[in-house]
Structures are given as structure tokens and as C-alpha cells.
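U., I forgot to send this yesterday:
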Amino acid sequence: MTTSRRRVIYIVFLLIAVISGAMGGVFLALTHDLPQIRALETFKPAAITRIYSTDKELLAELFTQKRVPVPLHMIPDYLKQAVIATEDRQFYEHTGVDLKGILRAIVRDIRAGEFVEGASTITQQLAKTLFLTPRKSIIRKLKEAFLAFQIERRYTKEEILELYLNQVYFGSGAYGVEAAAQTFFAKPVSKLTLDECALIAGMPKSPSRYSPLVNKSLALKRRAVVLEQMARNGMITSQQLIAAKSSPLNLAKRRDISMKAPYFVAYVRNFLEKAFGGDRLYRTGLTVHTTLNYELQKAAEKAVTKGLEQLSTRMQRHGLLGLESPQAALASIDASRGAILAMVGGKDFQESPFNRATMARRQPGSAFKPLIYACALENGFAQNDVIWDAPIVFKGAKAGADWTPKNFSNKFRGDMTLRQALAVSQNIPAVKLLNKLGPSTAVQWAYRMGIESPLQPNLSLVLGTSEVTLLELTAAYAVFPNRGVWTRPFAILEVLDREGRSIWRAKPQMRTAISPETAAIMTDMLQAVVQEGTGKAARCINRPLAGKTGTTDSYRDALFVGFSPTIVTGVWVGLDHHGTLGNKETGARAALPIWIDFMEQALAGRPYRDFSLPEGVVRVRIDAESGLLASENCPNAVTAVFKKGTEPKHYCKHASGTSLTGL
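Result:
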């Protein structure tokens, strides 16, 4: 039996059940009485859900706002009309169940071969809210129809509408229209305008989807649908429709005054709403233990604030600080477990709750190069292989046109080892390396290392032209100190119910991304970035550190992603609308200082620890310029890591110009 046929049969049975329930309801209504549903205080009081950091700090309390039932005459006509137009156009005609509406919905569902339209009346929804579970079943629909008839028998339409408007859930902990008005617009429901009424009326269909605090674009589209339905039903004029649809969305500032680590809490809250549903989250008193370290969180917030203040001062000095202020994001995770230790999603959560660490996709610039270099090492390259850094043209490489990549410095350095090219972030050697590997091969390796955003398989990929989130890039870097194993970042350790019973526990998701040997060599190469290259400023921490800077065209994005043996941290700085930071605000200048300030605090008081090496690698001293073994008097000697058997066998000869590999 096909899926579409099963759905049609289910729909027919549903119709029979509802009609049977309606007929039974008419009979039973003559002999049974409805409980006193007006007594809202008899419902079990909602308990507070509390969210804790791993160091026992209370981060936030989530709860339903106290219901403040408002009489129907205090609710604007526009809001009542909007709800009726959206949820139940025949509200004043039916007796609890809209049989015509059910038939109309069934016809559309059968034609579509799936459930595309429901037919629950406002009275049925009220019955479900008060007495039933949201689980879809024929039995529940039968009970819903019976209860709807009972409610209609006992109460007037005005009383039913008043009960419904004071009970329905609007998302973000707001139950009832008064709580919704205060939550989204910080005003009493009686003061709502037409466009605000339409926005609120559109939310009960899917509170987590249409909430303007979650997705403004979808909320505005839903508002437009409600307004158009009101216009079609003669509730508003065409002029009112046009004016209301064009009205700006003036949301109240979030008043999570007691909330700590607000971007992280919002991230956790969104997960919990999807996992448990809003009603359970805000009413049943859960205890949520998260991965966040509050001491590290405070250090992260302080570092971001300081870094943005310094950047804003420089931008103002050069006349670049206009209407839009620079933003920053920071994500820090435990290298081995993937647990999120600290998260900052922007300059000010009250001004903008948009989380730039988890939601914003931005170009990473050269911070993407380590993923391509890791692919090269896995495919037989060594960090002392030499590439010729010189002008080159790739025929038809960019949308069918020729492409001439450039170095950031606009200078060329001739023979360079892979280690050296990565350390000083030369672009042309990286592009030539990717050309040798093949972009499609590199894309698959990047996905294995934890990148989940779409990547374009072209040569500019190695320069970070495909957009990613800061959190996924940070997690990809964690593969290096974690011996080649990728672990999905997670924020919640355990959730307990009101009685203290565990109802959810984290199950870390991990997989081998690259070999332990490749991870060790990449860690060594990224240590060279800190010791010899663009990340030199981080040497002030005096700990084993590795990382990579990233800067995009016109200084639109500045990044530094780096790690110690135990902590991986990524920092992004930029403007939301992709404007330039100006004045050569590179990853080393705009993002790295924030990273340093945070990591100094994160590592303070922790035992000194070096990066471990797997058995399959060896350390040897090489000449940084040629990649050959360093002699005792070599002025450019560095220690480098190689897979056993691939280390150089010959000593360097200064000024020999010897090239091991011509790429």
C-alpha cells in the first residue's frame, strides 16, 4: 500500500471519527456537564526550568509568565478578528466542530496526498489546550470534538474566545495575549496596533517557527498572510492592508536581565524547545546542566568587549565608524570532548540576539587553509615539500575565465616549503597545492573534518571563499589536537525532570577525520604560524599554541582560530552587512588580540602541557628555508614533525637553491 493511499484512508477514518464524536457529543451533552474550566488557578502551577554552567553558576531561569487573564473588551478588535480570520473563519456559525471545514480540508488533503490543511476550530483548540495532549490520533480528535460540543453548550462565543486568547501559547514562554504583547512589544495587549495584532495572531500555528525572536523574515511573511486573510474577510480595508504590511517590526528589547551568557543560553534554549517542546520546557521545571564554564565565559565577554572598543577607536580615527558598529564572535570548545566552554555571539545581546558564532556564515579567508594542507598531508605530501611562489594564471578556473591569484603582500618569495607558506600565509603556494589535490577531493576532506556548510569545489576554496560558521570551523581545528578525531560541539550535559530524574544525556558524536600522524604534523605546522608567522603576537602567552589567521577581501572579515593541547578557540570580527573594517584590519590585528586576551585567562593556573605525539612520527631539525636537515651552524633551524620514514635524509647547503618538489 502506498504512503499516499494510507494517508487518504487515515483521513477518511478521521472524518468518520470526528462526525461520530460530534454526534456522540450532542447526545452526551444532554446528560453531562463540563468541568469549571474558568478556574485557571486550579491548574497545576508551572515550575521554573533552571540552566546551570558546569561550575554550578545559575545562568538563566525559564518559565511561563504569570497568566494575567484579560477580559475580552480589553483585547483589541483587530487581534480578535485576526485570530478568527486565521484560525476559525466560521467561529460564530458552528457549534464546536466545523463540519464544512473538515470536508474542505479532507478534499484538499486527498488531492495533495498528504496533510496540508487542518480543520480544528477555536473551540477544539481550546479543548485540546485545556484537557488533551498534542499527540495526533483519531481517539484524540474524537475526544476533542466531544469536548468542543460541551464547551459550546456551556459557554457563549465571547466567553470561549476570551478563554482561548488567555490560554494559547505564543512562544518564548508567553501564554495568552497579554503575555505575548509584553514579551514581544513590551506593552499591554490593549495598546497593540493592527500590524502587531496580526503578528501575534499568526504565531500559535507554530510558535518556534514564526516567533520574531527566532526568525524575523518568517514572522513578517506570516504577518502578511494574516493581514491578507483579514482583508479578504472584510475586516480591514485595502489601505490598512498596505500600511500594516509595510510597517516596520519594532520589537521590544529583550529583558533577560538576570540571564548570564545570553547567546549561549539562547542557543541552549532553542535546542531544548525542539527536543522537549515549549510547554514542557517552560512549565514542568527542568534542570539543565550545560558544558559552559562561567569563569571562561566572563573572560570571553571581557575580551570581546575590549577588542571591539579598540577596533572602534581605530575605525573612528580613520573616519570608518558609521551607522554600523563592528561585531565579534567567540567560540571555545574542549579539544577532546567537543563541549562548548564559552560562547559570545555579538557585541550586545540586548541590541541584537543574532548569534554570529553559530548562525552567521562568513568567509574564513586563510583560516580555511589548514583544512586543505591536512588533505595534502593525508595524500602523501610532507611539510618540507617545496612549492614555487611566483605569478601564475589558471586557465578557465573562475566561472570559465582565467584567474590570477595574488598574495596578500603582493610579493613573491620563490621556493617555499609547505610549512613556510602556511606560516606566512602565502596564497599562491596554497592555490597550487589545491590544484594538485583537486578541489573536489579537498571538499570531501573538509566535510570529514566537520565542515557542514556548502562548499564550492573551486581553486579559490583554499583562500576561504566558501562561507562557514565560526563554531564549525573551530570544531574542525579541534581535530588537530584531538589526534585526528572530529567531535560535534555540544552544549548540554544532562537534563533532569522536576523529581531529579535524568531524562536526557549528551551522547558525543565523533569520528576519525584524519590520521593521528597527520594531526600531529598539522599541529606542528600551525605552531609555526605562532612561532614564525602571522600569529607571532600569541607567543606572549608562553604556552604551546597553534593557530591560523584569516582575512578576507577588503578587510571584511578578520579571524583567528587556534588551540592549546586542551582548548580550541575561534574569534571572528566584522560588520554584519559585510562592510570593510578598513586600515588593514587583518586577522592578526583585529581578531588575534581578542583570542590572546581570552586564552591567557583560560590557561592561567592550568598545568603546563605540551602537544603529544603519536608513535608514528618523529621530530627532526630542518632548515626552514630549504626543508632539508639542519646542520649545527644553520641560522634558520627549526624543529619539525614528520611521519616516520618521510623525514629528510640530506643536510641543507646554503644558497644551493635545491628544490625537492616542483609544484
